[in-house]
Amino acid sequence: MDSDWKKGLKRLIRKVGRDKVLTGPEDLLMYSYDTTPLRHLPQVVVTPTEVQDVVEAVQFARRVNIPVVPRGAGTGMSGGSVPIQGGLVLNFERMNRILSIDIEKKMGICEPGVVTATFQDEVEKLGLFYPPDPSSYTISTLGGNVAENAGGLRCFKYGVTANYVLGLEFVNAEGEIVPTGYFDNYKSEINLTGILIGSEGTLGAITKVALRLIKKPEYTRTIQAPFSSIERALELVNEVIAKGITPAVMEFMDEETLSAVTQYLNYDFPHGVAAVLLIEVDGPEDQASQEGEEIASLCRIHKAMATEYADRPGEQERLWKIRREISPSLARLAPDKINEDVCVPRDQMLSFLKGVKGIARGHGLLIPTFGHAGDGNFHVNIMYDRRDEGQNTDAQIALEEIFDLTLQLGGTLSGEHGIGLVKRDYLKKQYREVELDFMRQVKKAFDPEGLFNPGKIL
Ligand SMILES: Cc1cc2nc3c(=O)[nH]c(=O)nc-3n(C[C@H](O)[C@H](O)[C@H](O)COP(=O)(O)OP(=O)(O)OC[C@H]3O[C@@H](n4cnc5c(N)ncnc54)[C@H](O)[C@@H]3O)c2cc1C
Questions:
Q1: Per residue in 137-186, pLDDT tens?
Q2: How far apart, in whole angstroms, are the C-alpha atoms of residue 250 and residue 405?
Q3: Which atom in ligand 1 lies closest to the alpha carbon of residue 77?
Q4: CATH number listed for the domain at residues 3-93
Q5: CA dihedral 263, 266, 272, 278 (to 10 degrees)
Q6: Which of 15, 203, 324, 409 has its C-alpha lying 20 to 30 A from 330's C-alpha?
Q7: CA of 76 to the centre of ligand 1 (A)
Q8: Do residues 255 and 270 make contact, with C-beta atoms less than 8 angstroms apart?
Q9: For 333-417, which CATH class?
Q10: pLDDT in tens, 328-362
Q11: Domain-wise residue ranges, the chain
């Protein structure tokens, strides 16, 4: 350890306090991973409780020339918060205060470490609603959601995180506090808020978020419809949309996913089920219940098997359980999983799902697929054992084939989980060099020395 490092660390501790600076091996291990198999130890972890701590941490990193990697809850699925080149992890878990909720203006101001579900619960007590709901909402943070532009189950009707961010405060690579949008009285001519959203911690550390809220829907009806074929399920999705109904949720689960989750929960579907849709309509009671009736009648026309309906919380939760327990149930199928979140145009969903099944057969792999059917956003889960060299190779080839299929069908490589490290090398399949170069120039303008989250996205 050289003397600059020692001196710098001492100064940092003096400025922010001993309890906010971690260097012990166990502590470093705790901040070395996310949900991908990627792992790398940082050199130091700083847990700020106020923006000035973030400023000090960034200035320290500049002085000793190490990278800075912002981190929310580490639920990311693309390696974004893994400090792959070491350096300083800025762990936002203690900047977790909801600073205000304004009922009249329908907005909330939060620190980045607020857990998404905590914010949702607090605004709902006041009759308001914050719709973005990644399935990780009970753990993930608002800062992580903004940095990944998280989507979720309600995207089809309500949009993604970007649709709710009014402004941000961030600490830039110079260690300066920069307000955007709402926090800048919307003075800036170029929308810096929009550039920060989805930038995956590569442009700066977000220290405050202003979020738009809407009125809490009065009524919700949940419908669970099993089908004997994928075609029938997708026909229903398209017809619901063609009728002008915009459900809040339209989740699709294929046969392999259902097999895993029903065994896990000891749940029964009718024999021969090939796909299940979980649909939820919400809004004023008369409108949402009428839409629920129309969907029920479409379910009959499309020969759904044993459709179930619920409009009371306990019953709804029972129908939701199948969807919510997918992740732990898949974990039992194989030691390793490549989980990707590609997105295809809605009229290409059937070709995509058939293509994935072909790829799975071709490699002898199990690839359960589920996702947000309203948006064509599918989570494909390549189950394998990476200790088996043959399976490992097959899984990597299958992944590349799935990406190629997605792009051939006019889709995109990431619907919501971001690029991070796991999709970085595939980005050139989707973008032309001129577009990638444009992104590199944006990164350079914010962070000329590459301090923030190096090696990610580009
Ligand atoms: C079971 C499960 C289900 C999921 N479902 C969904 C889903 O439905 N939709 C979806 O979109 N995602 C989903 N995800 C992925 C993940 O939860 C989201 O990407 C989430 O937004 C990450 O939040 P986090 O707080 O865990 O961030 P982290 O994983 O800690 O970080 C994610 C990225 O954000 C950056 N970052 C974090 N905080 C800040 C900050 N304050 N300033 C600047 N950059 C920051 C990090 O550097 C990193 O690049 C799921 C994950 C799991 C495990």
A1: 999 999 999 999 999 899 999 999 999 999 999 999 999 999 999 999 99
A2: 23
A3: 15
A4: 3.30.43.10
A5: -100
A6: 409
A7: 4
A8: no
A9: alpha beta
A10: 999 999 999 999 999 999 999 999 999 999 999 99
A11: 3-93, 96-215, 219-323, 333-417
